[in-house]
Amino acid sequence: MLLDMIRNGFSAETVVNLCVRVFVIFCVLPVHEYAHALAAQKLGDETARLSGRLTLSPIAHIDPLGALMMIFAGVGWAKPVPVNMYNLKNKNKKLGMAVVAFAGPLSNVLMALFFMLLMNGVAAFSPATDIMKVIYTFLFTAAQLNVTLAVFNLIPIPPLDGSRLITLAIPDKYYYQIMKYERYIAYVFMAIILLGFLDIPLSYLSTGMFRFLNTIASFPFKFF
């Protein structure tokens, strides 16, 4: 994003892209975190609710560093929702944590489908005016960023949601050893993102998921 501004200035596409990223910070990431909090509450843990995180208010969820990463790198995060796995109703606590973790990326997939439905509706029924092109670009980029966030968060590296999902496959003693170094792993991982080492694999996976979801979202409009 920053390099695009330096190279191209504030083109219409760059401005729309920036607006979408701000929209993601204030509207999409809070939904992602709310999904975690709601799943935890439904499974018996009230920690998130008591911490004021069972809300869609962005004030409760925004992480300044994660917001900056969203602006400049296209992937970011909000403050992690606190969850006490020992409060979960599930006898299998690791399964409960995996369900709570998966709720976040699932919310991004559902939001991506929503924006794709609107995007395909605009393409099918709206006149090709400049304002409709801007709206289409906004919806396309919002869907694209939601897909990227879903894929990004499913990477099995702490502190991402995917690291909670792999608890189902890793013995506890190894998992807890890894989690001791979660903060340091997060710093290294952030550097890897900024250096662009994940750009190609993230782009490949996100493109594949986008095409799959858009095939579903475009199906109702094939009859018009």
What does this structure look like?
There is one protein chain. 69% of the residues lie in helices and 0% in strands. It has 224 residues and is mainly α. The model has no long low-confidence stretch (mean pLDDT 87).
Reconstruct the topology from this structure:
Blueprint: H1 2-8, H2 12-42, H3 47-50, H4 64-73, H5 93-125, H6 130-153, H7 161-165, H8 172-179, H9 182-194, H10 199-218
Helix pairs in contact: 2-5, 2-6, 5-6, 5-10, 6-10
* Strand residue content: under 5%
Instruction: Provide the structure class.
Output: mainly alpha
Ends distance: 36 Å
The poorly predicted ranges are: none
Order of helices and strands: HHHHHHHHHH
The helical percent reads: 55-70%
Total strand segments: 0
For the biggest sheet, the summary is: none
Provide the residue-averaged pLDDT: 87
Oligomer: single chain
Gross morphology: globular
- Cα-atom radius of gyration: 19 Å
> How many helices does DSSP assign?
10
